[in-house]
Amino acid sequence: MAILKKKTKVSDEIPSSSMADIAFLLLIFFLVTTVFPKDQGLQIVLPEAQEEVEVSQRNILHINVGTDGLVRYRRGDSENEFTVRPPEMEDIWRMEVAQNENLIAGVRTHPEAQHRYMVQVLDALQMAGAQRISLQMGEG
Amino acid sequence: MPLRNGGFERKSKASDQIPSSSLADIAFLLLIFFMVTTVFRQERERPIEWPSAEATEQIDENRQNIMYIWVEQDGGIFINDQPVSMDQVSSLVAPAWIESQRRLRISLRADARAPYRFIDGVMEEIKAGGAIYVVFATDLERRMARERR
Q1: Other beta carbons within 10 Å of B67
Q2: Which of A27, A57, A109, B2 could form a cystine bridge with A65, CB 3.0-4.6 A?
């Protein structure tokens, strides 16, 4: 009886030299498909319903945003109105709040004004550290 | 036998090759990191022009507690890839607000060119739905870019 001997020399181990290649392939796939979430912006807190409070005109800075992107602002107890560009509001707010720390920013935007103009004003106010900001829509 | 190197022979047996056996481990570690941190996008982005702001900050809230409301230039409103009308917004915000246990952040992704009346309308709807935290989604603007403007 002939002896049946296994002649094959095939290794019975999983080849580990290609493991790195497989891992890197998967790695590159995930690197390419990953989308980092873009959850950022300017945060504000809206007033809750029935939370309306009377504010003395003395403590309001009226900020009107027009369709031309310019800002007209005046103090509540004053008749003088000034026209500035949105980025200038940052220094103005710092100056005004230094005189009256209870100041509230009443931002009134024209219905047809572009959203970006309101964002620019809000940006300037937040850069100046304004906390109390009220957003309203002006009359058309 | 003449002495090589003046009798000083290298004794170190350290291999001068980079060990390639641990390469797979490194790769898998990176792979698992990316697998864990990957968040698949649930909704498609609307083509809007992002407003930019210097005071832009990250929303420190879980993704599940962020609701995205898209406002296009012509006033079209989209929530979860669905076009909705203005008066439907509050009925979508209200259940999400309750479900999030009053933590819901509304990310208002409005086109920079959209007239403000649409933004105001959406904000009134958000208020009616009970939510109070609103984030105007913006791109971070660097001071350099601003000075050029």
Answers
A1: 20
A2: A109
Residues A25 and B51: their CA atoms lie apart, in Å, by 38
Architecture of domain B52-143: 2-Layer Sandwich (3.30)
Give the C-alpha distances (Å, rounded to integers) separating A61 from A53, A75, A111, A125, B26: 16, 5, 20, 12, 59
Cα–Cα dist B89/B91, whole Å: 5
Q: Which tens digit of pLDDT belongs to each residue from B102-137?
A: 899 999 999 999 999 999 999 999 999 989 999 999
3-class DSSP state for residue B62? coil
- Cβ within 8 Å, pair A42-B136: yes
Which residues of chain A does B132 touch, with a Cβ-Cβ cutoff of 8 Å?
45-48
Q: What is the pLDDT of residue A6?
A: 64
Rounded to whole angstroms, how far apart are CA atoms A61 and B132? 23
pLDDT tens digits, residue range B44-62?
788 889 998 998 888 888 8
Query: Is the CB of A109 inside 8 Å of chain B's CB atoms?
Result: yes
Q: What does the pLDDT look like over B3-13, one tens digit per residue?
A: 566 667 666 67
CATH code for the domain defined by A59-137: 3.30.420.270
How many CA atoms within 13 Å lie on the side-chain side of B23? 15
Structural domain spans, chain A: 59-137
Dihedral sign of CA atoms A109, A115, A121, A123 in order? positive
User: Read out DSSP for A32-95?
Assistant: HH------EEEEEEPPPTT------GGGEEEEEE-TTS-EEEEETT----EEE-GGGHHHHHHH
ipTM for the predicted complex comes to 0.73
What's the token pair of residue A70?
Answer: 């310019």
